[in-house]
Design goal:
By secondary structure, chain A is of the alpha/beta class. Chain A is about 30% helix and about 25% strand. Chain A is elongated and about 70 Å long. Chain B has helices spanning about 40-50, 65-75, 95-110, 130-140, 195-200, 210-215, 250-265, 265-275; strands at about 1-5, 10, 15-20, 25, 30-35, 55-60, 80-85, 115-120, 145-155, 160-165, 170-175, 180, 205-210, 230-235, 245. By secondary structure, chain B is α/β, with parallel strands linked by helices. The relative contact order of chain B is 0.15. Classes of the chains: A alpha/beta (about 375), B alpha/beta (about 280). The structure holds flavin-adenine dinucleotide and adenosine monophosphate (AMP). Adenosine monophosphate (AMP) binds near residues 7, 127 and 128 of chain B. Flavin-adenine dinucleotide sits at the interface of chains A and B.
Chain lengths: ~375, ~280
């Protein structure tokens, strides 16, 4: 049973509502340029988990202009229902208008949970929505759970330095609002045959006069971003300077990856902040992460929890990364990387079977060392 | 022009150490600093004042030691600093913090005159929620925008900003009063000047307000005014990894070992087939 809220104990600025009045798990879905944002579809994954545990519906909320035709798509990714607000006022995004609409929907439908992807826009509008509803909000969750006795959602996030996980709840307030960074959760599998209800809400939106978009320019990115790459070759302070990244770029090029970095490398000014991996950088989910001259601090490793394999190159036989990587080789990257590039180029010209037999002595070696 | 800049006094996370014996963070003795992401916010406020005239007021809700942070802001050149501090504000989450900050801004308007801009850092290094600017804007019902790298006052009523999203650079115009979140690393903060600091001390530019001054309902502040509760904390669960370590004879040996590991690992072999050999799957 959820808590009964005693109204006289609440801040008078908060509407007094009982948690049991609220139901359904909402995921706010962003759409742009005629497609749904991958980051917001990812939020359907934890949304489904919570909805199942609460035995409530999972609802996608789609607010924008010319977006109605995308509604069914959200159902195919696992939503039970979709609420659509399709309005020409939303042709340009504006945090206040967007928040206002979601707040009005939330007052009408009273969802128990609102999940949002922490894209830049998501980070911008979600606290405004939560505040207008006088709801609790938890940023950058890495997991969610439900306390089945009280029906409180546990919003799980690493506080402060990523060594601990805090379980946060808001037993006296609904909705329970949470965000998660892109790529912390996978996009749920798509089911083309899935059907569900689409509700069109006609909300009269006042044109916003206090804030207006003057211009918008798309930034063309030459290189593949770290979020999308299958292989990320990342450098840390151990590189000793920006030249180290030149070497990593060559390796990335040969092996088919892109370059990332630790915060210390970014802080040193060797590479742009965009490439920072970790708690205050990006969370990524490559198949292979190669950490070069990175010690393996908890805040860094938080960003690569979803990496399928980690290879580390580190000069220090006691570096913490050793216990967090699949394969670590001890040595100076300045010596190892050029030879690694050379060997990769060599085996690229062989058939894979030839390459395997070329390296066959290492089978025995691994067995002997471990 | 009257500009308010919000700053937070945070533990220097760079100096926090981990105690492997107890598995906890050692916070004792960790010095606090002004949140580094607030320095570009202070810088932007000062530049706008320097070009349009007026004054900059720094505010912080924090325990008393945070006067040091406000002194730094005064040293950079802000005109007045207000520490908002009271035991009843302790334990605040971002909703309760933004409530106190918005009432502080209201009180500044009553005592000093209307406010044109409120400028915040984009996020803090200790909690990095980026909630406060949007929440303060919500309490005040003022327009707001995040990730601002440049701002300019067009006439006295409109501020034009350039801001950066993942894939777009956008320009917005906001009617003042408005709230801005300033992008991290966007502006190089000016140095603290000793003469500014001395003048501020001499002219008593630092004032302290408590709840006797703000007179807020205690149900709306501190722990009571915070919907979020930390139910428990646990150690971060470990990701299972293979943890194979190799001490090579030389670089050639190291490189070959790495490649052999990749070729024997089904996942990586399949990956290399595509990325190195260019075999379409
Ligand atoms: C709240 C908070 C948030 C943070 N967020 C992030 C974040 O998002 N991302 C992040 O990365 N960090 C973050 N940090 C910082 C983190 O704690 C570490 O300080 C940082 O990750 C260390 O970077 P590094 O591994 O490059 O440097 P170091 O820890 O200095 O490690 C350098 C490594 O290089 C090795 N090395 C040196 N020379 C060579 C060589 N020639 N060849 C091979 N190896 C060599 C050394 O043995 C060492 O292991 C955060 C910290 C806090 C408190
Ligand atoms: N207690 C506080 N007092 C004044 N300003 C604050 C406080 N907490 C946060 N801020 C401001 O809000 C910004 C975002 O903080 P946060 O939402 O906590 O990540 C910070 O960079 C500060 O400018």
């Amino acid at each position: 049973m959820s808590i009964r809220v005693e109204c006289d104990k609440l801040c008078p600025e908060w509407p007094c509502e009982q948690p049991e009045e609220f139901r359904d798990v909402w995921v706010l879905i962003e759409a742009s340029e005629d497609s749904l944002s991958e980051a917001s579809l990812q939020m359907l994954t934890p949304g489904r988990l919570i909805a199942n545990k609460l035995k409530e519906n999972l609802v996608g909320v789609l607010v924008g202009y010319n977006v109605s035709h995308l509604a069914e798509e959200i159902i195919r990714y696992g939503a039970d229902k979709v609420i659509v607000v399709d309005n020409p006022v939303l042709i340009t995004y504006n945090p206040r208008v967007y928040s206002d609409i979601v707040v009005r929907l939330a007052r009408k439908y009273k969802p128990s949970v609102i999940l949002v992807a922490a894209t830049r826009r998501g980070r911008e509008f979600t606290p405004n929505i939560a505040n207008a509803l006088r709801a609790g909000i938890t940023a950058d969750c890495t997991d969610f759970d439900v306390d089945e006795n009280t029906r409180d959602v546990l919003l799980i996030r690493p506080p402060f330095a990523a060594i601990l996980l805090a379980y946060i709840k808001t037993p006296f307030r609904r909705p329970q609002v949470g965000t998660a960074r892109p790529n912390v959760f996978p996009v749920p599998p798509k089911d083309e045959s899935r059907r569900g209800e689409v509700i069109y809400e006609n909300i009269i939106v006042e044109p916003e006069t206090k804030i207006r978009l003057v211009s918008k320019v798309k930034v063309e990115k030459k290189e593949l971003g770290v979020e999308k790459a299958e292989i990320v070759v990342s450098g840390g302070r151990g590189l000793g300077g920006p030249e180290g990244f030149k070497l990593l770029e060559r390796l990335a090029e040969v092996i088919g990856g892109t370059v990332g970095a630790s915060r210390k490398a970014v802080d040193a000014g060797w590479i742009s902040h965009e490439r920072q991996i970790g708690q205050t950088g990006k969370s990524i989910k490559p198949i292979l992460y190669i950490a070069v001259g990175i010690s393996g601090a908890a805040q860094h490793m938080l960003g690569v929890r979803e990496a399928q394999r980690i290879i580390a190159i580190n000069i220090d036989p006691e570096a913490p990364i050793i216990n967090q990587a699949d394969y670590t080789v001890i040595g100076d990257y300045r010596e190892i990387i050029p030879v690694l590039i050379d060997e990769l180029e060599k085996i690229r010209n062989m058939k894979m079977e030839e390459a395997i037999s070329y390296l066959k002595e290492y089978k025995a070696l691994v067995a002997a060392q471990s | 022009m009257r500009i308010i800049v919000g700053i937070k006094w945070v533990p220097n996370t760079q100096a926090v150490r981990f105690d492997p014996e107890t598995g906890t963070l050692i916070r004792r003795g960790v010095p606090s600093i002004v949140n580094p992401h607030d320095l570009p916010a202070i810088e932007l406020a000062l530049r706008l004042r320097d070009s349009a005239g007026g004054e900059v007021i720094a505010i912080s809700m924090a325990p008393p030691p945070a006067v040091k942070g406000l002194e730094l802001a005064l040293g950079m050149g802000v005109d007045l600093a207000i520490l908002v501090t009271d035991r009843v504000y302790a334990g605040a989450d971002t909703l309760a913090t933004s409530y106190v900050l918005s009432h502080t801004i209201r009180k500044i308007e009553r005592e000093y005159g209307s406010v044109d801009l409120v400028i915040f850092g984009q996020e803090t290094i200790d909690s990095s929620t980026a909630h406060i600017p949007a929440q303060v804007a919500s309490w005040l019902e003022w327009p707001y925008i995040y990730y601002v790298r440049e701002a300019r006052i067009l006439d006295n009523k409109v501020v034009r900003v350039v801001r950066e999203l993942e894939e777009y650079i956008e320009e917005y115009e906001l009617e003042t009063p408005a709230v801005l979140g300033v992008a991290m690393r966007s502006l190089k903060p000016r140095h603290v000047s000793l003469s500014n600091k001395i003048r501020a001390r001499f002219e008593k530019k630092l004032i302290i307000w408590s709840n006797n001054d703000l007179k807020l309902d205690t149900r709306c502040v501190g722990l009571k005014g915070s919907p979020t509760i930390v139910a428990k904390t646990i150690d971060m669960p470990e990701v299972p990894r293979r943890k194979e370590v190799y001490k090579p004879r030389d670089a050639r040996d190291a490189a070959r070992w790495i490649i052999s590991r990749m070729l024997e690992d089904e996942k990586l072999r399949e990956l290399l087939q595509r990325t190195l050999w260019g075999v379409k799957s």
